[in-house]
């Protein structure tokens, strides 16, 4: 094997959770109680990073109001977090080889703690967004490291259990996190989500440091594509800013958004050219020349964009339009927990027996069925709080559990180990970027369609119309004079327009999922084959990394 191949292998080792190769250490074996505490510490760190993704989505409106900014700024607080999280993926392997896995893990948790404290204490939007960015970046560094460190403590026969244990938090942003985060926000205030992120990460870091502090690290000199990283960061920040502020600033009627778009596109184009010619690229963009990777990674990004976009739009609109509390809005998503994780376990076994394209196509069709089903619901009627959304949300949980495994199988097919590690990193980054554009894109679609429905409803309400006179007459009989009656009708029209706009958003997602169900058949067949225990475990680790938000 060439020396460059050794360097590449080392550079991606942390990202791929290459824990099957146990590192040498002078530390004696852990006692049972130490082993339990170490599991608790590593799992706690992983849960905290992932939990914050979904928990804060329930209280973004509270945070925006308390910081004195408009509700549209609530989207910024999530999207810049996702951008920072995406940027942490390409640099994590290099940093772990440079400073050591344990040091990087501890440093990431400590800086995430300080960033959470900044978010909790500040009253300024700029400093809050800066804190969220640091939260996402340094929290993202700890996600692959937590699994790496955990897996090394398990014997070969127990590694599958360790993977299952570690991945339990993967679906929390979509299931329990919104409800728990909403409850904390309603009972104690949204800032307590960040206050709790001070002692808990420190506890996780303390347990890890106490039990693994004697691990030996030998620094390795590995090249890092700093220019590529800066180009990518600049392009993503510019384009995300345009997406965040476009609706408020009337898009390209604002000159600064035009210049930001031009700058972002130029930086992105230069980044692609640079990566294709660099000796040690930040991301292996040549993977897109492989049909299965290109189709699988794009589908993963688009599917995650729609899932998270629908989640964020629904959570915000239930609160802003219907007056739901944060807890009630988050509780709408609780039924997802029934089948999400059990389905993930089942689909893992099915992926070894059937062509991944078939599993993906069925899953996309079921997602389309869920969106079509939900598009007929009046989510704002509290009497139907559980009666209407319950079973459709159970179906969404079923679909969510079967989303990541077959797509991972598809875009890893036909790649050797080295290319698989690079594909996992690039595919995972594209998925996170899908989450960063989800909220603004879905929000823009909802707002425009809600405005169109509102105009149509108001146009139909005319004094000469018999139905209009009947409605106003009933309001007068209820004790409302003309001005209050018209205001009441206006409010009802606004709410109904919001419902229709939300239904249109679900219908759009249904059509897109149908398109994805057809697109997957352009990929090459994936032939299921029997794997050795070691290769099967490595594949499960890849799947879990892709599944992490």
Task: Describe this entry's structure for a reader.
- 72% of the residues lie in helices and 0% in strands.
- With 549 residues, it is an all-alpha fold.
- The protein has four domains: 1-224, MFS general substrate transporter like domains (Growth Hormone, Chain: A), CATH 1.20.1250; 225-279; 286-446 and 503-549, MFS general substrate transporter like domains (Growth Hormone, Chain: A, Up-down Bundle), CATH 1.20.1250.20; 454-495, no CATH class.
- The protein is globular and about 80 Å long.
- The two termini are 34 Å apart.
List the topology elements.
Elements: H1 3-11, H2 32-55, H3 60-66, H4 73-99, H5 101-121, H6 125-151, H7 159-166, H8 176-188, H9 192-195, H10 199-212, H11 226-245, H12 255-277, H13 291-320, H14 326-331, H15 340-350, H16 356-374, H17 389-401, H18 404-412, H19 417-460, H20 466-477, H21 482-519, H22 533-547
Helix pairs in contact: 2-6, 2-8, 2-10, 3-4, 4-5, 4-6, 4-11, 4-19, 5-6, 5-10, 6-7, 11-12, 13-18, 13-19, 13-21, 15-17, 16-17, 16-18, 16-21, 18-22, 19-21, 19-22, 20-21
What's the story with the biggest beta sheet? none
Which stretches of 5+ consecutive residues score pLDDT under 50? 1-26, 382-386, 543-547
What string, H for helix and E for strand, traces the elements in order?
A: HHHHHHHHHHHHHHHHHHHHHH
Number of strands: 0
Radius of gyration: 24 Å
How many individual helices? 22
Sheet/helix structural class: mainly alpha
Indicate the CATH topology of the largest domain. Growth Hormone, Chain: A
CATH architecture of the largest domain: Up-down Bundle
Helix content: over 70%
Name the CATH superfamily classification of the largest domain.
MFS general substrate transporter like domains
- What oligomerization state is this entry in? single chain
Alpha-carbon distance between the two ends: 34 Å
Mean pLDDT: 78
Strand content: under 5%
Text of the CATH class of the largest domain = Mainly Alpha
- The gross shape turns out to be globular
In the residues, how many domains can be counted? Answer: 4
